[in-house]
Every structure is written in C-alpha cells, then in structure tokens.
Write a structure and sequence with these properties.
single chain, Collagenase (Catalytic Domain), alpha/beta, 161 residues
C-alpha cells in the first residue's frame, strides 16, 4: 500500500444534517483510500491528484439534478468528472462528488444498513465514475458492480447488491 496514490480530498459541508453522522469525513477518506488501493481502479491515479466531496441536502442536490441531468427531485449522489489532464503524467483535479443527506439516510434505513456503510458505497461508486467507469450498458454495469463489491469488501462492507 505504500506506493498507492490517494488523492487529496477537499470536503465541504453545506448541510448541518451531516452532523448526525460524526464519522462521515472518516468514512469518505476510508472509501477513497480503498479505491486508490485497488490495483485496477487506482491505476489511473497520480501523486497529487485532487477531488472534492460535498455533503449537502435534498433541496440542493435536487437543484443540481435538474440543472445538470434534467431530472426533477433529489437523488442520493451526483458525480461530476473533470476533463482529463493534457498529460497522464501530471496530477489533476478528478472531479466532484455531491451527496444528499436525506435521500442517503432514507435509503440506508430502508435497506437496513448503517448510514456510514451506504455512504461508503456511494463514495466508492461515485469515485469510480470520476475515474471513467460507467454502468450504461449491462457489461459495464456488471464490471463496475464487481469492482465496487471487491473494494467495499476490503473495508469490511458486504455486497450492497
């Protein structure tokens, strides 16, 4: 693990609702490190890469969802990948992940999961999007789910699917 390139994570808390999850920041950092440690997922990372994570609420994410995806209402998480750098040899800003507290908490409760576990899953999932993974096609989705499940297992989280 000594040679993995964990990106610097800038965490912005926009909603006080996240105070209900005292381990939210630590959970994000642990999930990001788990992705970076994965041989396949972390292969594109460079020393000095950066990313942003915003803890917000349903109202704020609903506005983003409408503006950027043309969809009404809140969602649990949005990923905004940054364009690739001009050279794969230099560090760059990977993009932003935005998480909505109420939707995330509601989903965790309905699935019988701890909020921190669901948060870790959504961060891993979204970070993979920042790294270029997608799930538009069945084959891509299967590959991405397998990658997510393996990464989550390394931090003690059961298969979310």
């Amino acid at each position: 693990m000594a040679d993995m390139n964990v990106p610097d994570v800038d965490i912005l808390v926009e909603s006080p609702l996240w105070e209900r999850v005292p381990q939210a920041r630590a959970t994000v950092l642990r999930a990001v490190a788990a992705v970076a440690a994965d041989r396949d997922a972390g292969a594109k990372l460079r020393h000095g890469d950066e990313m942003g994570v915003t803890f917000t609420d349903d109202a704020a994410i609903a506005a983003l969802n409408g503006r950027w995806r043309g969809k009404d209402g809140p969602t649990n998480v949005l990923s905004f990948p940054a364009p690739p750098p001009p050279s794969s040899e230099i560090p760059h800003f990977l993009g932003d992940i935005v998480l909505a507290f109420e939707t995330l908490e509601r989903e965790a409760n309905s699935e019988g999961k701890a909020v921190e576990q669901h948060l870790a899953h959504l961060v891993v999932h979204s970070f993979l999007h920042l790294l270029g993974h997608d799930h538009e096609e069945d084959e891509e989705a299967s590959r991405m789910e397998t990658l997510e499940t393996g990464i989550l297992a390394t931090i003690g989280i059961a298969d979310p699917y």
